[in-house]
Amino acid sequence: MRSRRLGTSDLSVGAIAYGCWRFAGASVTDAQAKVEAALDHGMTLIDTAAVYGVDDGSGFGAAEELLGRVLADAPALRDQMIVATKGGITPGVPYDSSPDEIRASCDASLRRLGVDVIDLYQIHRPDLLAHPAEVAEALAGLISSDRVRAIGVSNHSPAQVAALRAHLGEVPLATIQPELSLEHLGPIDDGTLDAAMAHDLTPLAWSPLGGGRLATSVIDPPLYTALDSLADVHGVSRPAIALAFVLAHPSAPIPIIGTQRLDRIADAATAAEVELSKTEWYGLIAAAGRELP
After folding, report:
1. Number of continuous H segments (helices) and E segments (strands) in the chain
2. Which of 39, 94, 153, 206 is least surrounded by CB atoms within 10 angstroms?
């Protein structure tokens, strides 16, 4: 799989990433099989978060702990991956990006993952009560203390990204992580992807299959028909076309898949070989409900 660079950092990863949102609750054996399948298909960015595991009842930190157990059992996998995680969501608060919390959250993630350094550390969602200067100072400190190699943000607006960058100084922000798919086109219009291109930020697209809806028939008939038509033309699956749509944007997004099935991990990897024409790409936009000339 071709690679994409994370911002201006020295980190390069596969064009598609594997996410651990639904990772918690599996056995270590099953979890290792998923990670190995992702790596075997070139998905070298493994994205998780401290809060993953809360929604399915496994508990706060469960997904990180499970990935840590996989790495403990198979330490050679660590050198094959770029580990990304996120902090800033604190159940009961709910968002806390105060400097002490950022440092404590990062340290807790390091312990749960069992790694010496986190390759990419991201603020999961913006804390509206945190001044960007304080957030910037804490994130820069994570890099200078060798806890993390690069930093990013998730679910931040272009204005919030700009405010944070203004206080980071010479410390580069590497990534942004918006929801992006044919069912959620907001980042294309709201300035998120434009800001990424303006400031050399790599978008990490979460839910690129619309929570799995784009892989099923639970979508609008015109979009269903358009995806299936292009799948026939390119000889791939419907999910692969939906991922190829995200990959084709000039901001070079990296879609993060979250499937728990090994066959679907392999299928998703085929999207990296699909080259959609402008006509095909705009045809999908139109089928998703966008008015075009």
Report:
1. 11, 10
2. 94
